[in-house]
Amino acid sequence: MPELVFFSGTMDCGKSTLALQIEHNRSARGLKGMIFTRDDRAGEGKLSSRLGLVTDATEAADDFDFYAHLVDHLSQGGRADYVIADEAQFLAPGQIDQLARVVDDLGLDVFAFGITTDFRSKLFPGSQRLVELADRVEVLQVEALCWCGARATHNARTIGGAMVVEGAQVVVGDVNHAADEVGYEVLCRRHHRRRMTSATAHAAALSPDVLPVASA
Predict the structure, then answer these.
(1) How many CB atoms lie within 10 A of CB 57?
(2) Which of 87, 138, 143, 181 is flagged as catalytic?
(3) 0.85 cut: is pTM over it?
(4) Is 185 flagged in the annotation as binding?
């Protein structure tokens, strides 16, 4: 049976690499996929991995209708055996509904990839709808690490190395960026709560944490 599968994880955990691997494996078996993305770091109409791999994709803008696009493609004699949607957290909930309809009405597997929560630890609307509708939610097993060495579970937005907690939900950036630019860093929950990035914590010289002691 066709499925809607949501592959989720923090930034820098290999989501786009897995999307490209799925595309490679299936195309090597003679299957034809349709690849979509939204606001990829490599630019419009690209699906890219931090490992340097990149492929062409269809950019899914705000008004893009996945179901109508697939129906039109198939009606004109085009072929599609599966669908890959990267950066799915940026999609609108209605677009996630369209992807579910592609599975149910067109009988195609849909593989969606995205981060679950934003820099404030709030669910992206697209990711929330995927959790609600997906046949399976797969958490990526390649663990990104916080600067302290613990498993990274949260995405932090930074400016000049300092964590910020206000601003628009969607600001395109990367974990590799100039010091004065908007960037992102993955942190464990403890250091996300404390707003301690690798720069502000001076990780190499950070002394062990101590328990808080109430003053007399």
Answers:
(1) 24
(2) 87
(3) no
(4) no
Tell me the pLDDT band of 172, cut-offs 50, 70 and 90.
low
Q: Is 143 a catalytic residue?
A: no
12 belongs to an annotated ligand binding site: yes
Angstrom distances, CA of residue 106 to CA of 72, 81, 91: 12, 10, 20
**CB 133: neighbour CB atoms within 10 A?**
16
| 15 is an annotated ligand-binding site residue | yes
Pull the structure tokens for residue 1: 């049976």
pLDDT tens digits, 77-129: 999 999 999 999 999 999 999 999 999 999 999 999 998 888 888 899 999 99
Distance CA 2, CA 103 (A): 6
Cα–Cα dist 150/83, whole Å: 34
Q: Cα torsion at 180, 182, 187, 189 (round to 10°)? A: 120
